[in-house]
């Protein structure tokens, strides 16, 4: 279950919990705003955004391959 870290969610019995990336980014921005010396937070934001863009590129390639696998001119 993906959620925003609201305490009651942790009581649900799921195999795995995941945190919403938008909320993680917001928390990281809070770290930066409240303690600018915490440079790791900016790096983590960069990493999360890079992972998101890489996933999108890979998904686009996968979709293209699926669409073209039965066509000769792709």
Account of the 3D structure:
- The protein has helices at residues 21-34, 39-68; strands at residues 2-3, 18-19.
- With 74 residues, it is mostly helical.
- It has a two-stranded parallel sheet with strand order 1-2.
- Helix 1 packs antiparallel against helix 2.
- 1% of the residues are buried.
- The model has no long low-confidence stretch (mean pLDDT 84).
Question: What is the topological layout?
Answer:
Blueprint lengths: L1 E2 L14 E2 L1 H14 L4 H30 L6
Parallel strand pairs: 1-2
Helix pairs in contact: 1-2
Helix-strand pattern: EEHH
Q: Categorize the overall geometry.
A: flat
Helix content range: 55-70%
The fraction of residues assigned to DSSP E strands is 5-15%
Q: Summarize model confidence as the mean pLDDT.
A: 84
Output the radius of gyration: 18 Å
User: Gap between N and C termini, in Å?
Assistant: 38 Å
How many H/I helical runs?
Answer: 2
Can you tag this structure with a few keywords?
74 residues, mainly alpha, two-stranded parallel ribbon
Question: What's this, in brief?
Answer:
The protein has helices at 21-34, 39-68; strands at 2-3, 18-19. The protein has 74 residues and is mainly alpha-helical.
């Amino acid at each position: 279950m993906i959620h925003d870290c609201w305490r009651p969610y942790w009581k649900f019995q799921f195999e795995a919990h995941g945190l919403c990336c938008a909320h993680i980014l917001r928390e990281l921005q809070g770290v930066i705003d409240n303690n600018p010396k915490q440079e790791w937070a900016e790096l983590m934001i960069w990493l999360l955004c890079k992972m998101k863009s890489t996933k999108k590129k890979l998904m686009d390639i996968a979709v293209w391959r699926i669409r073209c696998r039965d066509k000769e001119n792709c």
